[in-house]
Structures are given as C-alpha cells and as structure tokens.
Amino acid sequence: MKLFRKLVLLASVAFGLSSCATPRSAVSPNFSPEKYSRVAVMANAEQDGVNPGVLRRMEDEFTMELIRKGYSVVSRSDVQRVIKEIQFQNSGLTDSAQQAAKIGKILNVPGFVLVAVNNVEDKNHYVAASSGYSQNKKGETFAYSNGPSNLVISSAAISARLIDVSSTDVLWVGEAKSGGGDSPMSILQSGFGEGMGGAENLAHTLAIKVAKTYPDRYPKPAR
C-alpha cells in the first residue's frame, strides 16, 4: 500500500508537469519571420547555483524548436567564441539586451533569442506518517498506513525574448512559471530526476513549453 501511494503521488506530479504552467507570449507588429530568419540563442541564469548543464539543455531545446519552425540558428560554439573574444566583464555592458546586440552584430545575425531562468528552488518538506481507513469502489473497507516521507516543493520561472541587434527592441517575448504560489509541484526526493534536482527538471520542461510559442516562419496551411 505504501508503494502504491508513492506511485499515485508520482503520477500526479507527471500530470502537473504536463498540464500546469501554461506559457504566455506576445509578438511585436515589427516582427518579420523572413527578416529574422537567422538568429542566435543564449541562456543565462538570473540567480546563483543553477547547473550549467540545465542552461545548455535550454539552449538545445530552443535551437531544435527554432529549426523545426524553419529558422537558421548559429551554433553554440560560435556564440561562445564571440563571448570569450569581447569579454563582457571589461566591456562596460551591463544590460543583457546590449550584450546580445554586440554578440549578434559580430555574428552577423539580425536577431538574438535570450533565455533567462530564475526562481529555481527546491524546498524540502517533511510529511508525517498517517494511517486510517478507506473504501474501494466495491464498498470494501481497508486500513492503510503511510510512513513519513520527505517531499520537495519545486519552483521555476522561464522567460525568453527575441532582440533586434540593431535597435535592441523586443520583437517576441514568452514566459512560463510554476511552483511556489502558482501550482506547487510535490516531488518525492528519491523518485524524480536523474542527476538534476526537481526544480531544474521543471525549468527544463518550462523552457520546452516557452520555445513552442515562438512564431512559425512559414504559415501553417488552413484546414
């Protein structure tokens, strides 16, 4: 019974990840799929302690989704090469849009997709043991006992925007968040994730959802 109740909890987590945190997005009237058909992508953490591997996965998700939608994307190695060349810590550029514009001009792309992750947090919660009686669909009564559990309440927020490298105008923006006061994700400490925390997995899931809101380059045929 204890194992069954844990499996039910994990199933509810999976449902929550797929159904909660609906992304929002908006497109500027100045956006043109043809004008911005080639872009660069970069993900940054707006807090300390985020696994760099999570950022790379986010960049990969946006890159794959943009390619699926018909766009050309500059390779990560080229973006990283330019970042090392201009050395932002000595450039005097503190605004992320200005940074993207400078990188974009060197890479000769008209647009730059900036992805930001924040509020990535796992909070441990101890759930005391409980017991009682319940009934199945047949009306049969049975006793249950649920031992103490260590649960994690995970939260994360993702935002992304397409920047015009010439004007630094925002041409598209998308965002999604979940956890905390929104729709808390309760995850068994030992039952979710491989090598990354629940919140980092959640951030990755949100990034996929936000990437899908990016405008298609070619209009889909009407049905």
General description of the model:
The protein has 223 residues and is of the alpha+beta class. It has one domain (2-211): ABC-type transport auxiliary lipoprotein component (Rossmann fold, 3-Layer(aba) Sandwich), CATH 3.40.50. It is built from 5 helices and 9 strands, in the order H-E-E-H-E-H-H-E-E-E-E-E-E-H. The chain has helices at 2-19, 52-68, 76-86, 96-107, 198-211, and strands spanning 24-27, 38-45, 72-73, 111-127, 130-135, 141-146, 149-164, 170-178, 185-188. The strands form 2 sheets. Strands 1, 2, 3, 4, 7, 8 and 9 form a 7-stranded mixed β-sheet that branches. The longest helix has 18 residues, at 2-19. The protein is elongated and about 70 Å long. Residues 1-20 and 180-196 have low confidence and may be disordered.
Keywords:
223 residues; alpha+beta; Rossmann fold; 7-stranded mixed sheet; two-stranded antiparallel ribbon; 5 helices; disordered N terminus
Question: How many helices does DSSP assign?
Answer: 5
* Terminus-to-terminus distance: 49 Å
Tell me the strand percentage band.
25-35%
Level-2 CATH architecture: 3-Layer(aba) Sandwich
Task: Round the Cα radius of gyration to an integer and report it.
Answer: 22 Å
